[in-house]
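Quick question about two entries, pasted in order.
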Amino acid sequence: MSNVSFTYHIIWRTKKSENTINEVHERDLYAYIHGICKAKKCTLYRINSMPDHMHLCLEISPTIAISDFVKLIKQESSKWMKQHKDWFPKFNSWGNGYAGFSYSKKERDKIIAYVKHQKEHHHKKSFQEELEELVKEFGIDAQYFISKD
């Protein structure tokens, strides 16, 4: 039997970074995404959003690739949000790509707190600044993700 533990911080944005995640119904969206995570045997530690992007802190089951998991979450949540157009009237789709960062179990509480406090965090930093800091910290090129598709 295999045993793995990877804590991921996954971020994706709305198409053209438009403000389409309605704060009044964001918790309904979180509950829907949580259901997908449970169905795929993933552990969602924390979810939060801003009007133009999502943050998840979770462990993904070793039976599913991170790219397949994010694709599934984005596809299914997009369909669900379109079915609830009255709750998310400006939502058209998610943007291309995502950013994913892995952390050790020791760092998990820090990432959970970071995701939990996104709304306060963004009073000080824009999404662009936040992503650029993470990209720099991890030494990756995220121009594709940063672009305004």
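Here is the second entry:
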Amino acid sequence: MSVEAALLVPVVLALVALLAQPACVLYARAVMAATAGELCRLAATARCDEGEVRDYALRRLAAVPDVAIFHEGGPGAWDVTVEGPDERGIVTASIEGRVRPLPLLGALVAPLGAQEDGCVVVCVEVTAETRPEWLEGGYDDWIEVWE
């Protein structure tokens, strides 16, 4: 019985490690995608500056543990970019972070992003149309109706 256990335990631990790394990266990507979607809505509806948008994003990205297999570099290491809304109401939000894969598992995580200094760059970009095509005029035109 002990020979089987001596063989089974390392195999089970290796399988858990193989499943844990991609799960950590996919969790971080899910949080990043949700945050980018919220940033698109925020940029379309709020009148705030770039610093406030970044602070809002960092509060949402705090859900990603500050552990190298989830995110490397601490809370300030996220690259957050929001562009828009333009005249058609299109907003683009992108968030980029870095993950340091476990040793021996870098090959499994590499397809999820580009390699840079031993880290995998994970980037999420969301583009949202926040204003329907049939809606005419702008905020100033809409306010005139109520004056």
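Reply: Residues 47 and 137 are 18 Å apart (CA to CA). The beta strands are 79-83, 90-99, 114-116, 119-129. Hope that helps.
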